[in-house]
Amino acid sequence: MIIAVVFFGLSAQAQEKKNKNAKYNIDVNGNCEMCKKRIEKAAYGVSGVKSAVWDTGTHQLGLILNEQKTSLLDVQKAVAKVGHDTKGVKATQEDYDKLHGCCLYERN
Known about the structure:
Layout: H1 2-16, E1 22-27, H2 33-44, E2 49-54, E3 60-65, H3 72-81, H4 93-97
Antiparallel strand pairs: 1-3, 2-3
Helix pairs in contact: 2-3
């Protein structure tokens, strides 16, 4: 009985352990190289982000992050704060309006 309790206790701890190198790809709206720099800078500004690369052609932001320090939602919020919509978090109109003219993408 004791062995079973110890085993299940360790299993529960292992499930709660967060990945230090979690990989994600998320859609981020934008248009150009200025957008790329802004999006990547915002992502890197979140503690725990190890890699952030936005592709201007596919609009995909490739991320590697430490889930013990941050979450995908935290990164989406940071990107939205600089004016770029993600599927999970939309930028406020005020933040969107601050973008340079060539960076104004078509919003859904």
